[in-house]
Every structure is written in structure tokens, then in C-alpha cells.
Design a protein that fits this description.
mainly alpha, 22 helices
Length: 573
């Protein structure tokens, strides 16, 4: 059978540096997902060795693999967390690319288009070839979805040209993008050539899923040309690959194709058998395109068998699927237009603000020049010195005020992540040098996204302020508390051993009757990840925070209101 499972035995074992093993896992992410997932589990035990840049790549790779296996909530949580943290353009593009794919899987077209348009704004800043490939790939697919085929084909062709500078995998997915455009626009002969090139490139580098996608198109092409035997062969090969990968949508589509091939050959028994297999896989509330094709096959079979009841039933389901498909296409098109309009309006507002800022800067500069000319004419050397001193004092005050604003989270009044890190670094070094205990804690509101959906964004903001109150009131004097990102908070607690730090955390988890919005304590639960680095150890501050972050993830996996402690060397206990 086709698939990635046989590759498990041809990949070298881990044993190099963290960078070497992470790079190997990244290279196998599509070609061999099972091995990649195994390697991620092993790398997770060594996160104490990772730099911040490597940790972000590790999280991106985990999110990608969780998307492949259908763990959408976990993937989204990691990706949104990375969007708050990652500013480097190439990694930010990868994050947007995966978020757009996730939104597309969930049929959230509007959000998917928002991510794509945000990626378009980032494109000129990209320096890595893979990041540019990701953008062009998702753009070609999205434009094809809304039947903007001229734009889609232009993006796909740009991707094909760009991929000539890259590796076989990049050329493989360039062909996949081009095939998607040709298939959507019913350019069957061009699609036939693209599908054969895709199989040739992807067999070596791109993984079985892209090969199977191309075989699905070739099956459709052969069926349109009346070559039912060849169509059946392509669909069966694709079905074997999708079975190996446990790719549900692919298994459904290939089973329908096999049923269509047998029906075209006049073999109603096998056509009925495969159609019923597909029927068991259908989600009645989505996959309208697949449902339409399937119910057309079942309706034709019922007619041939003279089963009037089944004919009426499947005809109704066929009509329902087609109506839903038309409505979905309209909604997708509308979502695209709305997203593009909102994005253009936002871009125009930003441009207007930048222009206004330039005008104000010019006015301010001219005003300062006139002021100095007048001052120089009126004052002697002593007066100028006094004036300079006054200006320096004023500038220093303004600089101090701006620094304070930059280091303070406007919603909670806590330190921002950068503001906290600026204060944390000397504290961490001091505790390490003196051998004093220091607990590093990451806290998060459980399922905060669902909380926002259920109670609204205003209540979500109140919950964040309430969380900040609980942390401040629960911790000892001298504790550093900051908002890391989203609903995640970072705490450095000096002077307490691990058991005392855990007591503080448990106290914080209890509902507090005091303060504003105390009733919110009944609606939310908090999970924590802790670590207490060994004094004089080799663990740096960033590595300790990463270990606490991993412990927090494991705490949340165990359930709400959980606490997980990481060992000092960075592996979780």
C-alpha cells in the first residue's frame, strides 16, 4: 500500500544536537507524519536545551502535526499563542499559513481570508523561500475557492517559478497549487499535465497525501473521458494512500470515486457496496460537495433497481446537498469580499494616520527651528544653557513616561512580557549567584477562548483584570507579575521554596470574595506550570520559562484547575 508508514524504518534515529534533530523532524513533517510525531515527543523531553527560536519552531511543528491528526483546538491554541509572541516575519507567515488552513478546515471562510490578507501584507518582508512558498500556496488555493481564477492562476504560476529555486518538496506543493486552480476552473487538460508532474515530484519529496490528491484528479479526468478502468485504478491507489494516512476526507472522496467508476462500468453491486461505505463516512452537516456526488450515485442505483422509496429519499438528499453547496459558495464569496473590504479600509486608515504623523512631525520640526532662531537672537550664552537644561529635563521626563507606558499592560495594569523580562533578568542572576530560591510560574485561564465565545469579549476583559487582581493579592511582596500574552501570565516568586510556591498557587486557584467582579471567580478556573531552577545551574531564564510553559501545557492536558511542576533541568516531573 502507499503511504508514509514504511518510511518509519528508513529514517535515522535521534541522537544529534537539538538543532539537528529538530531540523530532521521539520524535513519529515509531510513526508512522514508518524515519525515526525514520535520525534516531537522525544524532543519535548529535551526542551531545556532549546533556544527561544528553536522553541518557537518546535511549537509550530507541533501545531502542524496536530492539524494533520485533527486536534484542531490544540493546534489553534498554540498558533494563537505564537501570533502573540512571534514578530520575525518568516515564522509569523508560517503561523498565519497554518491558521488560514485551520479556518478553512472549519469552514470559517471569513477568518481564513483575514489571515490570508494579513499574510499578503507581510509578504514583502519575507526573506526565506519556504515562507514565500507558504503564502503563494494558500493564496492560490483561496482565490480559487472564490472563483477568482485569474488571480489564483497568477499566484500559482508565481509559485511554480519561485519553486524552481527551491527543493523537490517546494516544487511538489507548487504543482499541487497549480492543480487546484486547474481543477477548480475545469481546465482538465492542463490539470492532467499538472497532476502527472505532481506525482513525479511528490513521490520522492512531498509525501503520499499529495500523490493521492493528484491520483484523485486523474481518476476524475479518466472518468470524464470515459476510461472507467483507468479511473478505477487511480481511485483505488488514492484510497490505499488515504487509508494509510487515516485521512477521513480523502477516504470519503476516493470511495465515492470508486462507486462512480463501478456504476459507469455497469457493475451496480460493487457500486452500491462502495457507495454505502462512503455513506457511513459522511458528516450530514458538512462536506456538501461530497454529499452531492454520493447521493447522485445512490439515486441512480435506486432508479436502476426500481426502488421508488430509496429513489425519493436520495433525490431529496441530493437536492438538499446542492442547495447547501450553493449557499456555502455564496457565503464564502461574501466572506471574501467582506474581509477584503475591511482589510483595505484598515490599510487606508493606517496610511492616513502615517501621513498625518508625517505632517505633524514636519510642523513640529519647523516650529522647533523657528523657536531656536528666535531664542538665539534674544538670549545670551547663559540663557541658552538654561534653556538646554530645561529641554533635557523635559525630554527625560517624557522618555521615562513612555518607557513606563511601554512596560505596562493597559488592560490589567501589570507588566508586559518585555517589561517583566527586563526586571526578571537581574533578579534571576542575583538569585542564582546567591543560591537563593526562585520559582518561575506560568498561569492561564482554562479554555479562555470558549469563555470569550460564551460570555463575550467585554466579560473576557473583565476576567483578565480579575485574574491580575487574584495574582497580585495571592503573591508575596517583591513578586514580579506580568501578562505574557492572551490569558497567560508570568510570575517570578523569589525567596520561597517549591512547596511554598505551590501553596501560593493553590491559594490563587481559590475563589476570592473580595475585589471588583468577584463573581467571575465562579466562572473560570486557572492552571499553572512551575519550575524552580537549581542555584548555580546551567538553565538560563528563557529556558526556565520554556520549561514552565511545557509544564503548563501538561497541566491543561490533565484537566481544569491543574498544577504541573517541571524539574530544575527542564523536563516535567
Amino acid at each position: 500500500m502507499l503511504g508514509g508508514l514504511s518510511l518509519l524504518f528508513s529514517v535515522k534515529a535521534l541522537g544529534g544536537s537539538f538543532e539537528e534533530d529538530l531540523s530532521l523532524a521539520e524535513s519529515l513533517r509531510v513526508k512522514n507524519p508518524p515519525r515526525t510525531q514520535q520525534m516531537l515527543a522525544e524532543l519535548g523531553e529535551r526542551l531545556g536545551q532549546a533556544s527561544l527560536e528553536q522553541f518557537q519552531r518546535y511549537q509550530l511543528l507541533r501545531a502542524h502535526q496536530e492539524l494533520l491528526v485533527g486536534h484542531y483546538e490544540e493546534a489553534e491554541e498554540k498558533l494563537l499563542h505564537l501570533m502573540d509572541q512571534v514578530q520575525e516575519p518568516n515564522k509569523r507567515m508560517r503561523t498565519l499559513y497554518l491558521l488560514a488552513q485551520l479556518s478553512e478546515i472549519r469552514n470559517d471562510s471569513e477568518q481564513s481570508f483575514h489571515y490570508m490578507l494579513a499574510a499578503a501584507d507581510l509578504y514583502p518582508k519575507l526573506t526565506e523561500l519556504q515562507a514565500k512558498v507558504d503564502y503563494l500556496f494558500i493564496s492560490a488555493h483561496m482565490y480559487s475557492r472564490v472563483e477568482e481564477f485569474t488571480e489564483a492562476e497568477a499566484k500559482a504560476q508565481e509559485l511554480v517559478s519561485l519553486s524552481e529555486k527551491g527543493n523537490d518538496y517546494q516544487r511538489c506543493i507548487a504543482q499541487q497549487a497549480q492543480l487546484a486552480v486547474f481543477a477548480g476552473s475545469e481546465q482538465l487538460d492542463k490539470g492532467f499535465a499538472a497532476a502527472n508532474r505532481q506525482i513525479e515530484l511528490c513521490k520522492v519529496s512531498g509525501g503520499p497525501i499529495y500523490v493521492a490528491d493528484a491520483q484523485m484528479f486523474l481518476g476524475h479526468y479518466a472518468l470524464q473521458k470515459g476510461d472507467t478502468k483507468r479511473a478505477l485504478s487511480y481511485y483505488l491507489e488514492a484510497k490505499n494512500a488515504f487509508d494509510d494516512l487515516n485521512y477521513r476526507t480523502g477516504k470519503l472522496s476516493s470511495s465515492i470515486g470508486i462507486a462512480q467508476s463501478f456504476l459507469a462500468q455497469g457493475n451496480t453491486t460493487l457500486a452500491y457496496n462502495w457507495a454505502n461505505r462512503a455513506l457511513d463516512m459522511v458528516n450530514p452537516e458538512e462536506q456538501w460537495s461530497e454529499q452531492s456526488e454520493l447521493y447522485e450515485v445512490l439515486s441512480t442505483l435506486a432508479q436502476k433497481q426500481g426502488d421508488l422509496n430509496e429513489l425519493v429519499r436520495f433525490d431529496k438528499l441530493y437536492v438538499k446537498a446542492n442547495k447547501a453547496l450553493v449557499q456555502e459558495d455564496k457565503q464564502t464569496r461574501l466572506a471574501f469580499l467582506q474581509a477584503r473590504l475591511e482589510f483595505e479600509n484598515q490599510r487606508q486608515r493606517i496610511q492616513m494616520l502615517e501621513q498625518q504623523n508625517q505632517v505633524l512631525n514636519l510642523q513640529d520640526s519647523n516650529g522647533r527651528q523657528r523657536f531656536w532662531l528666535v531664542t538665539q537672537g534674544m538670549l545670551g550664552a547663559g540663557g541658552i544653557c538654561l534653556l538646554l537644561f530645561a529641554v533635557l529635563v523635559r525630554n527625560q521626563r517624557q522618555r521615562s513616561r513612555l518607557m513606563k507606558l511601554a512596560q505596562t499592560d493597559p488592560l490589567t495594569g501589570l507588566l508586559t512580557r518585555q517589561g517583566l523580562l527586563d526586571k526578571a533578568k537581574p533578579l534571576y542572576l542575583q538569585c542564582q549567584a546567591k543560591g537563593e530560591p526562585l520559582a518561575i510560574i506560568l498561569a492561564d485561564i482554562d479554555s479562555f477562548k470558549n469563555f470569550n465565545h460564551q460570555y463575550g469579549l467585554n466579560t473576557g476583559d473583565k476576567a483578565l483584570r480579575r485574574m491580575a487582581h487574584r495574582l497580585r493579592s495571592s503573591m508575596e511582596p517583591g513578586t514580579l507579575v506580568g501578562r505574557s500574552c492572551g490569558a497567560e501570565f508570568l510570575i517570578l516568586l523569589p525567596g520561597l521554596d517549591l512547596d511554598e510556591a505551590k501553596d501560593r498557587v493553590r491559594f490563587c486557584q481559590r475563589a476570592d470574595p473580595g475585589g471588583e467582579d468577584a463573581n467571575l471567580d465562579l466562572l473560570m478556573t486557572l492552571s499553572f506550570g512551575l519550575i524552580q531552577p537549581l542555584p548555580g545551574g546551567q538553565l538560563g531564564l528563557e529556558q526556565a520559562i520554556q520549561a514552565a510553559s511545557l509544564a503548563l501545557e501538561k497541566a491543561k492536558e490533565r484537566g481544569f484547575n491543574s498544577i504541573e511542576v517541571a524539574e530544575a533541568q527542564g523536563s516535567t516531573a
